[in-house]
Design goal:
single chain, alpha+beta, 6-stranded antiparallel beta sheet, 2 helices, 26% strand, elongated
């Protein structure tokens, strides 16, 4: 199902998804009648596809988050932050699961 971005406005929060990268929440920074900018990319309002991205295999996607998406992404970001700080302590047996 394609997302509807026809009513997107500056300041809206969307979720940016890229291959081999964690999802992140991005803010819409610019809107024109046919396009909008969010997360360093320009998107087509009608189709929701990224504009000017040459690699079709690793093309980023964007969607409107639900409440559970926001909570999940915030928790993942927190766990990643804690994991990086604990990893800096050079604990040899620390895994991502233990940090969680």
């Amino acid at each position: 199902m394609k997302e509807d971005f026809t009513n997107v406005k500056v300041g809206d929060i969307l979720v940016l998804s890229r291959r081999n990268m964690p999802e992140e929440m991005v803010r819409v920074t610019k809107v024109t009648p046919t396009r909008f900018e969010a997360g360093y990319y320009t998107w087509n309002k009608k189709t929701g596809s990224v504009i000017g991205f040459s690699d079709s295999f690793c093309r980023p996607t964007i969607y409107v988050p639900k409440e559970e998406d926001v909570a999940r992404i915030q928790q993942d970001n927190f766990v990643r932050k804690v994991y990086r700080k604990l990893s800096a302590l050079k604990l040899e047996d620390l895994t991502y699961e233990k940090a969680t």
